[in-house]
Design brief:
Elements: E1 3-9, E2 19-25, H1 34-44, E3 64-67, E4 70-73, E5 88-91, E6 98-100, E7 103-104, H2 107-115, H3 137-144, H4 154-157, H5 160-164, H6 170-181, H7 189-196, H8 210-214, H9 221-234
Parallel strand pairs: 1-5
Antiparallel strand pairs: 1-2, 3-4, 3-5, 6-7
Length: 235
């Protein structure tokens, strides 16, 4: 079948402002992914089209973009799940500065991610016998969903609180803070709660649930942030 893609283009070295360009593809299969269509355009029609991708299997998060008005991974969205009877609208993630076409500057995103110290800070020395830390399954179950985050940025880019306040830590960083604060092996919960409990931290979340709808891993981000709020109040 024939499918059209309406893609937001922008090359700062050449263009004064972003603009939309329409591409038409023939012989598209309903199970083709949006990423497959972007590759075809780049290979067959316009080699200057720029976008990120890596694993192409929904694990690296690098090909996050806005597809028909929703933040998603291009490698997991199928043509059959879109309204392809009119042009499929492809745009870069909102909020983040555009570097070129569908590639945005993720440096602010990762700067906030690094601010919450996204690594295990053990509360005690590892066992002398060389074994792993022993943790009860029910304790690990509490953080399992939060470990599925692939740092694609879909949740943060969908957050109106971040749109109105660029200094807000945003959902992805807060989710990662939850992952370590509630890890029974970690000993820096107090330190991290102090980081996220600031003016531009937890309390900027207004429970809008955009992050939940945008998450390609179906993580209930808002619930995790609510648990952080409870922990901060107890602290």
């Amino acid at each position: 079948m024939q499918v059209q893609l309406k893609i937001l283009r922008y090359d700062p070295e050449r263009d004064e402002r972003p603009y939309y360009q329409l591409f038409t593809l023939q012989d598209v299969h309903p199970t083709d992914r949006v990423l497959d269509l972007l590759h075809r355009i780049k290979e067959e029609q316009d080699g200057s089209l720029t976008f990120r991708r890596s694993c192409a299997h929904g694990m690296c998060g690098s090909d996050a973009m806005k597809i028909n008005g929703r933040n998603a991974l291009a490698c997991t969205v199928l043509v059959r799940d879109l309204n392809f009877r009119k042009p499929i609208l492809i745009e870069p993630l909102p909020f983040f500065p555009i570097i070129k076409d569908l590639v945005v500057d993720m440096e602010p995103f990762f700067r906030k991610y690094e601010a919450i110290k996204p690594y295990l800070i053990p509360k005690e020395a590892p066992p002398e016998d060389g074994r792993e830390y022993r943790v009860l399954p029910e304790h690990m179950e509490r953080i399992m969903e939060s470990t599925k985050c692939i740092l694609c940025g879909c949740c943060s880019a969908s957050c109106p609180s971040l749109w109105s306040n660029p200094d807000y830590l945003a959902p992805a960083a807060l989710l990662k803070a939850y992952r370590f604060i509630f890890d029974p092996r970690d000993g820096a919960a107090e330190e991290r709660l102090a980081i996220v409990g600031t003016e531009n931290g937890l309390w900027r979340c207004h429970t809008i649930f955009n992050c939940v709808e945008a998450c390609p891993k179906e993580i209930n981000v808002t619930w995790h942030i609510s648990q952080l709020k409870k922990a901060a109040l107890e602290r």
